[in-house]
## 1
Amino acid sequence: MAESLQDWAVGALQALAHDTRLSVFRMLVQAGAKGLMAGEIAQKLAVPPSTMSHHLASLERAGLAASERESRVIRYRADYGGMRRLLAFLMEDCCQGDPLVCADILEIAACGR
Amino acid sequence: MAESLQDWAVGALQALAHDTRLSVFRMLVQAGAKGLMAGEIAQKLAVPPSTMSHHLASLERAGLAASERESRVIRYRADYGGMRRLLAFLMEDCCQGDPLVCADILEIAACGR
DNA sequence: TCTATATTTCGATATTTCTCGAATTATAGA
DNA sequence: TCTATAATTCGAGAAATATCGAAATATAGA
């Protein structure tokens, strides 16, 4: 317990700050609700299963992904709540509300459209 | 050269994935256009000058901060362009545009208001 | 129960990052 | 030019992370 939001955010950023994990996270974000199976992810990125397992566990511990067993397969999904918390934390009190400085950051939130 | 956007994003996330640097970045984001002086930052966070200098250099190399000398002082500012690029990269093709899944991420982009 | 498949956990090495005092560089003022 | 101040770069030991094969666990089907 006793973990501040800042501590959590550092953990989340640490999880994303790795080539393989960032690719995995983006794959999951783009996959949406149906997610992806662990083996599928490992194969697509050509990473050994045990290595990928560590990376997936990192993302899950960080609150950026969630897993669910489906018989022999484990399905991973992006945790959009965690993603939202992280982005919100980074943008908190952004540049004192000066639209000249950071207003265009709004546009990126069009969420893929 | 030959650095992909993904490689850049990993570097930016790495820069943010540290307690001190994340605090610095948020201070800069909140400070807006007037920025903060290197010494001021080091003092506020109670970190030795040489250590802080490394952290500031990391943020600058990552494209998340910019520095400018003003006589004997060096002023650091958040690089909102880098911030925007990073957030955009994370949200690209977010959950295939399904508003049920990630629409509320829009709200956080109110940029502190 | 026996076998095959999917995934994770263990363990040990290799690599990278963090930290901060000491030395260095840059600027301003007397 | 001499001194004081602000900040950076150097250097090296300490600490944290990454990697992946081997072993272990969980599930399904024969």
Note: Residues 65 and 79 of chain B are 5 Å apart (CA to CA).
## 2
Amino acid sequence: MRQSELFLKTQREFPKDEVAINAQLLIRANFIHKLMAGVYSLLPLGFLVREKIIKIVRAEMNKLGAEMIMPALHPKAVWEATGRWETMGKVMYQFKNHGGQEIGLGPTHEEIITEIAKPIINSYENLPLAIYQIQTKFRDEERPKSGLLRGREFTMKDLYSFHADQASLEEYYEKVKAAYQVIFKNCGLKSYVTEASGGDFSKYSHEFMVESAAGEDEILLCRLCAWAQNKEIAEVKAGDHCPKCQSGVLDKVNAIEVGNIFKLGTRFSEPVGLVYKDKNGVNHPVIMASYGIGIERLIGTIVETHHDEKGILWPEATAPAKVHLLLIGEAKAELKKSAEKIYNGLVKEEVEVLYDDRENVSAGEKFADADLIGLPFRVIVSEKTLAQDKVEIKKRNEKEAKLVKIGDLNKALNNN
RNA sequence: CGGGGAGUAGUAUAGUGGUAGUACGCGGGGUUCGGGACUCCGUAGCCCGGGUUCAAUUCCCGGCUCCCCGACCA
């Protein structure tokens, strides 16, 4: 990637109105563009981060079910069956098309997937089954806020599972719980499985919480054994001993909910008529669960938890590229030529690299932008380094830079 | 949805009842070239509608938008 061709222009000033760190940094660094409250474009760098996160999510999800994609436009009738056309009316965008047909924009997909599953799931022999999608959701949030943390239009990974009995559900649910922990860890986040409101079907659902001052939720947390409970349902308070390990003392902390898993039971299968036949040919409603991860919220959470006063510090797995290659002194033709050669070498080695090839940009500005954008490695090519046939390499999260031979660059990048 | 704050150039800001100034950016010239360098020239703006007034970006009313707190968030 050449910076001069990336549709990229960083801003020197923080946006006036934004208070949330993730909004300030992502807008300044030009990862995102706000069109209206809670509605953002992902510019090339932001788009790449999204791709990285989706890749991490898919890697785990594909072990648990097949991927599909459902529409965002939903007819009223499907939602009326479960009563949610009415009850979700506040958060669901609802309108009439030119023919007068009532249509909603999907805030979630339980109704739709249940409808789809009807002709597919007929017998206990078909179960269990699971399917997921990564798709755009629309929610008419009354108060979108905190940059990417609460939007009106966002990408969600939603997984739905179908079971003949409770034991099967429990087993699968635990698998997903484990997979979610892997996903968040792979995104560079420390998440806590948190007990939360469970609805009619089970005592608890589980939220995956990342500690952050920017979080809207408050949780009671045991740092000793990682037990956590949402304050909304908490039967304990800060300072109490942990009900699980008994020895830890509970903290009350703010947290961002990056994922949620929920046992639905027959809440949707029953009204929609999704049933299976048991061995005796008797119909039973399918037992279901749903599991969600907000992709853009995850981007915002990473920025909230990985930044310093100069900019973002992307965890390598989620960074838009691994290396920021800076050419200092591009006016000199031989320097430019060497930098191009190093850039092409990295590309050839399939190292993800953002090459700051901009002309007439001062060294200081390139440094400032590199810190702001926050790729894991910064590599500098300049007269100074080339005099020794070397480049300078520095990690974003370290102070010290070191010089390495050009031929050893790739090795140095991998040894870190 | 209740409460608070704010809308002046691409961004950040100053200011005025007589149509607006600065910095960065952007275009051009020159000097620079390892932490947002210097310099000269240029470019670009008062959220929308109504009212008061000879005259409104400024005062009044209404609207829209954005941010924050709260409520809401299977």
Note: The longest strand of chain A covers residues 250-265.
